C-alpha cells in the first residue's frame, strides 16, 4: 500500500468534520478525502439496511480515490454498518464508537455514564454492550437527541433555539447522577459549549472524534501505513466531496476547520 495515499473519512453531513479536524491535528502528514452525504442526512432515523447500503456506496467511491484506510466518522453508520463493512472490504476500516467507549470507561468515577446520540445509535445498543464488556458494573443512560444533527447542518450552532432544545433533551439526564456524558454523534462536539452549559459542572464530556483520531494514528503506525512526506497546503492535502449542493457545506466546513474550504465537489453517490 502506498503510504502517501489518503485517509478516507465519511459522515452523513458536516458532523464528521469534527473527526477530520482531529485527524489533521493528530496525524498532520496524512492526506484526507472527506465525503459528506448531505443529500441523505440525517442517518439517525433510517433503517440498518439503508445505512449499510449508504456506507457500501460511499466506501466504493472512496476506493476510487485510492484511500489506504477508512474512518466511518458517523456514530449511526458505525453502530449499524461497521462490522458488515469490515467483512466486505479488504481495507482497514475503523469507526467512532469503540474509542468513545474506552474513553468513557476510563473517565467515569461512579460508573454512571450518559449517552446522547441519534435514535438509531441509541436503539442499536452498541454503546452499552461495549461498555459492559469493559466495565460490567457500569450503568448507561441513553437519550436520543434527533434535532441536534439538523440544527448543526443548518448552521444554528450558537442559536437560542438550539439552547432551548438542549435544555429539553438533557433535563432528564441531569437528574440521573451521571458523571460522564458521551457525545455519541460526530455533530455534537460542535454543540459542546451548549451541552456543557446545560449539563453544568461535574460532568465530563467525552468527544469520540478526538479518541478516534488517536486510534487511527495507532493503526497507521501498526500497519506501517503512516505518511512521512512533507506537509503541503490544505488545498493539496485535503479533498472534499458531497452528495448535494456544496455551498452550505463549504460555509459550515470553513467554520469547523482551521482553513477556508475553496473546492468541494458534488458527486452522484447512488452510482456506486
Summarize the topology.
Layout lengths: L6 E5 L5 H10 L5 E5 L11 H17 L4 E4 L2 H14 L4 E2 L2 H11 L4 E6 L1 H6 L1 H9 L4 E6 L3 H6 L6 H15 L5 E5 L7 H8 L4 E3 L1 H15 L11 H4 E5 L4 H10 L7 E3 L6
Parallel strand pairs: 1-2, 1-3, 2-9, 3-4, 5-6, 5-7, 7-8, 9-10
How would you briefly describe this protein structure?
With 272 residues, the chain is α/β, with parallel strands linked by helices. The protein is built from twelve helices and ten strands.
List unreliable stretches of 5+ residues: none
CATH architecture of the largest domain: 3-Layer(aba) Sandwich
| CATH topology heading of the largest domain | Rossmann fold
The CATH class of the largest domain, by name, is Alpha Beta
User: How many E strands?
Assistant: 10
Q: What's the helical proportion of residues?
A: 40-55%
Characterize the main sheet.
6 strands, parallel
The fraction of residues assigned to DSSP E strands is 15-25%
Order of helices and strands: EHEHEHEHEHHEHHEHEHHEHE
C-alpha geometry: globular
Explain how this protein is built.
With 272 residues, the protein is an alpha/beta fold. It folds into two domains: 7-95 and 210-271, 3-Layer(aba) Sandwich (Rossmann fold), CATH 3.40.50.1860; 97-208, 3-Layer(aba) Sandwich (Rossmann fold). Helix content is 46%, strand content 16%. It is built from twelve helices and ten strands. The strands form two sheets. The protein has a six-stranded parallel β-sheet with strand order 4-3-1-2-9-10, sandwiched between helices. Strands 6-5-7-8 form a four-stranded parallel β-sheet, sandwiched between helices. Strand 9, helix 12 and strand 10 (264-266) form a beta-alpha-beta unit. Helix 4 (97-107) crosses helix 6, helix 4 crosses helix 10 (208-222) and helix 8 crosses helix 9 (192-199). The longest helix is centred in the first third of the chain and has 17 residues, at 48-64. The two termini are 23 Å apart. The mean pLDDT is 95.
